[in-house]
């Protein structure tokens, strides 16, 4: 990336545009990831394609975009904070414009990942409930298809009748604030930090070094297609690397559970129960889906960011 100064408003615009475009493109795959990671015992879906096909059949095309509204609303500040914070910390840690060491690059990524959880945690909290509602409704249908469900299924059916009413993000947020206060929206913040900090520590240094390979000289910006491929590659690697932590975070933030599914007391308890009851393979659930989500999402983000769309808009509309 070139060393020219980029204003904070431009960074916010770049991050917002990148987030909106990226999320719109890959949201159905993200929905499949959430449902695959949440299913325990009774398997409704055998994989990503099976999940998407069944979702379309049971809920229609727009069923694949459940939870997209909250994501599209909050992804702008989330992506803007992440990208701008990484730039800020890189500049803070650099000495007279010299190349950062790998340790300092990871430290800058750590700072960016820490800052973004302010937005990421409530966004993911609401999105996961909306994404998983269809899976719970489908599981309930399967459980009751053969006649009267067992006692635990009846209890579940009564407690989650709201699933069929298609809860909205506003309704969920209001309910959480009323019953648990602001802490309700930040349930799983520890697990989110444990996931997002390592992700950023892997992603940003890897992207910076991959992107540097496309620069003809130290002061030039890499071609946009190289930034896209570097963002995709770094995003996919970082996403797969933290899949274990993503599974734990998703399970902890899911409020409504299906028939016979575990509830957890915290991050360590969640990891222990998954290992004991489902084996190590459960920690890799949705790894392919997450890589397919994150790769283009961050590829698009870096193209928008490095092309300077925000600077262009401010210069021409200001």
Structure description:
It is a multi-pass membrane protein. This is Mitochondrial glutamate carrier 1 isoform X1. Belongs to the mitochondrial carrier (TC 2.A.29) family. The chain has 318 residues and is mainly α. The protein is 73% helix and 0% strand. The chain is built from 13 helices and no strands. The chain has helices at 8-38, 48-59, 68-93, 102-144, 151-159, 169-180, 182-185, 189-212, 224-241, 243-253, 267-278, 287-307, 309-317. Helix 1 crosses helix 13 (309-317) and helix 9 runs antiparallel to helix 12. It is globular and about 65 Å long.
Summarize the structure.
By secondary structure, the protein is mainly alpha-helical. It is built from 13 helices and no strands.
Main pleated-sheet profile: none
How large, in whole angstroms, is the Cα Rg? 21 Å
> Helix content range of the residues, please?
over 70%
Envelope shape: globular
Strand coverage percent: under 5%
Report the structural category: mainly alpha
Counting DSSP H or I runs of 4 or more residues, the number of helices is: 13
How many beta strands in the DSSP annotation? 0
How far apart the termini lie comes to 25 Å
List low-pLDDT spans: 147-164
Instruction: Provide the residue-averaged pLDDT.
Output: 84
Question: What is the H/E order?
Answer: HHHHHHHHHHHHH
Keywords:
318 residues; mainly alpha; 0% strand
Sequence-ordered SSE layout with sheet pairings:
Blueprint: H1 8-38, H2 48-59, H3 68-93, H4 102-144, H5 151-159, H6 169-180, H7 182-185, H8 189-212, H9 224-241, H10 243-253, H11 267-278, H12 287-307, H13 309-317
Protein name: Mitochondrial glutamate carrier 1 isoform X1
Membrane topology: Multi-pass membrane protein
Family: Belongs to the mitochondrial carrier (TC 2.A.29) family.
């Amino acid at each position: 990336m070139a060393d020219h100064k980029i204003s904070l408003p431009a960074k916010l615009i770049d991050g917002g545009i990148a987030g909106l475009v990226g999320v719109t493109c890959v949201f159905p795959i993200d929905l499949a990831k959430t449902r695959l990671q949440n299913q325990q015992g009774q398997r409704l879906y055998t994989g990503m394609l099976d999940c998407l096909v069944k979702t379309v059949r049971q809920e229609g095309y727009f069923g694949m975009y459940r939870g997209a509204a909250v994501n599209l609303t909050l992804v702008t500040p989330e992506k803007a904070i992440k990208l701008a914070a990484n730039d800020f910390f890189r500049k803070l840690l650099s000495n007279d414009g010299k190349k950062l060491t790998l340790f300092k690059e990871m430290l800058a990524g750590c700072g960016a990942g820490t800052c973004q959880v302010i937005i990421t945690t409530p966004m993911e909290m609401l999105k996961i409930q909306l994404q998983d509602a269809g899976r719970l409704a489908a599981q309930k249908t399967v459980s009751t298809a053969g006649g009267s469900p067992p006692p635990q299924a009846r209890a579940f059916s009564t407690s989650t009748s709201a699933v069929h009413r298609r809860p909205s993000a506003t309704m969920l947020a209001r309910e959480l604030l009323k019953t648990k206060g602001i802490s309700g929206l930040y349930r799983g913040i520890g697990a989110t930090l444990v996931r997002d900090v390592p992700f950023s520590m892997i992603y940003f240094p890897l992207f910076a070094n991959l992107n540097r390979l496309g620069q003809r000289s130290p002061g030039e910006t890499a071609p946009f297609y190289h930034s896209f491929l570097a963002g995709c590659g770094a995003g996919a690697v970082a996403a797969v690397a933290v899949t274990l932590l993503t599974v734990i975070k998703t399970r902890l933030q899911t409020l409504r559970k299906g028939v016979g599914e575990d509830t957890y007391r915290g991050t360590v308890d969640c990891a222990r129960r998954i290992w004991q009851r489902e084996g190590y393979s459960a920690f890799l659930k949705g790894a392919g889906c997450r890589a397919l989500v994150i790769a283009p999402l961050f590829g698009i983000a870096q193209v928008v960011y490095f092309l300077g769309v925000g600077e262009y808009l401010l210069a021409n509309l200001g």
